[in-house]
Amino acid sequence: MGGFLGLLAAWAPGVRGGDRNRLALVLRIENRAALSRCLGPVAVAGVLAQIAARLAADFRLAPTLQSDNGGHLCALLSPRQCRHAVRQAARVRALCGAGFGLPVLPVAPVIAAVLVRGPAHVGPAALFDCGRRHLAGAAPDGAVPLIDWIAPVLAGRAAPAQPQPGRLAPPQPAAPQRPLDPAGVEVRFQPQLCCHTGAVTGFEASAHLRHPLRGLLNPADARPALTSSDRLALAGAVLAQGLGALRHWDRAGHDVGTVSLDLAQAELCQPRLAETLLWELDRQEVAPSRLVIALQQTAGTLEGAGPVAANLHRLTEAGCRLDLDGFGTGHASLQAIRRLRVRRVKIDSSFLLGCDHDPGQQRMILAILALADHLGLDTLACGADTGPEHAFAAQIGCSHVQGLAIAPPLPLERTDAFLTRRRAVAEDLPRLRRA
Question: What phi and psi, each to the nearest 5 degrees, are found at residue 326?
Fold first, then answer.
């Protein structure tokens, strides 16, 4: 087996998904050097100690929490926490985004974190090292991704020498590989509901790579192997399947307005991105207004000129809609929101966690809704994973809602039955009108 998937197969630990029962957290302060210059190393050490204390208290990590010379905090989570890994990621993001106080002033460091999931036979040091490598190659965007541990062995090569504790593994030369094959990309669709009518207004399309040993993988799990051409091919493959799904729903008589495509900085920076997406829209004869581009916020990505601004300008001029992901947690300014003509903001899942009973979460959501209302923006509450969270988001005034309480990401063949059920439910609901 060759090409991109062959490389993944060579990296795979050779275990089934059900055997993974270790979950490691790796965290670091991205702007540690700048804070050290401004505040001094003692103050930065104090911030790191506060982070450690906060995580240890909330996650009960004290027995496994450790730090290294590179400014990383590493810990193993309990088996019970491992079973709810996505929820733990949201908790980590909420804890680290609350700010930290020093004796002289409050500090809001830029924190990057990752959860690494691996099989029982993989030791903590290997999981921690995988997390360090991921953070070394990823731009901070406020997210706490969940990645699978991948054995550091390339096809036809011996395993690289193990790094010393506290040091990153030396970079390895890339193995020759063919471009990513779009046939190996499978798209799942998570529905988005209108809170006023209960109707399905759109689906978010998420890409997964078909792995020969481990089933479907999120592209974030294989980020080190994705080249620039791979990312462009991946975005094109997701769009092609997403637009094909829209045409399928139209033929079946379902009223689905849009399909949403998440794009990170790596994709937005591709000079030919807008050309690729608009060509696919034209080929499938789908109106550009039915495509929603969800922008992930990264420091500097949405500000100023460059290929990102050029791509977004061309897409919005053609009629595509823009959503801003992680509203309230990222780096985008209000000026950038206006300049880019963003139409909807996505309330981050960290604010939805426990919002049905947590007054602090409720105040944050109300503040975001008030700001969005003054800016004339719709809102999409992401990560409503329980019935009470879904109910609160709908009742408090969110325009749309998405999460596991409604449905997980579905393969296309399962969306028809879901849409039929939701249409019957929506027809029985009273219509809500905003004041």
Answer: 60, 35
Give the count of beta carbons closer than 10 Å to the beta carbon of residue 352: 28
User: What superfamily in CATH does domain 183-428 come from?
Assistant: EAL domain (3.20.20.450)
Q: What are the tokens at 131?
A: 């997390």
Q: What is the pLDDT of residues 165-174, one digit of tens each?
A: 443 344 444 4
Does position 369 have pLDDT exceeding 90, yes or no? yes
| Mode of pairing for the β-strands spanning 72-76 and 20-29 | antiparallel
> In the chain, what is the straight-line distance between the N-terminal and C-terminal CA atoms, in Å?
59
Q: CB under 8 Å to 393, separation ≥6 — which residues?
A: 195, 347, 352, 355, 365, 381, 384, 401
The CATH topology of domain 18-148 is Alpha-Beta Plaits (3.30.70)
pLDDT at position 16 is 40
205, 237 contact by CB (below 8 A) = no
What's the one-letter identity of residue 117?
Answer: R
In the structure encoding, which two tokens stand for residue 78, read together? 């309990």
Domain boundaries, the chain: 18-148, 183-428
pLDDT in tens, 294-325: 987 654 456 656 788 889 989 999 999 999 88
- What the block records as the tokens of 6 is 């062959």
Measured distance CA(229)–CA(236) in Å, rounded = 11
The Cα diameter of the chain in Å comes to 66
What are 166-215's pLDDT values in tens digits? 433 444 444 444 556 666 788 999 999 999 888 999 999 988 777 655 56
The token duo for 95 is 């804890």
* pTM of this prediction exceeds 0.70: no
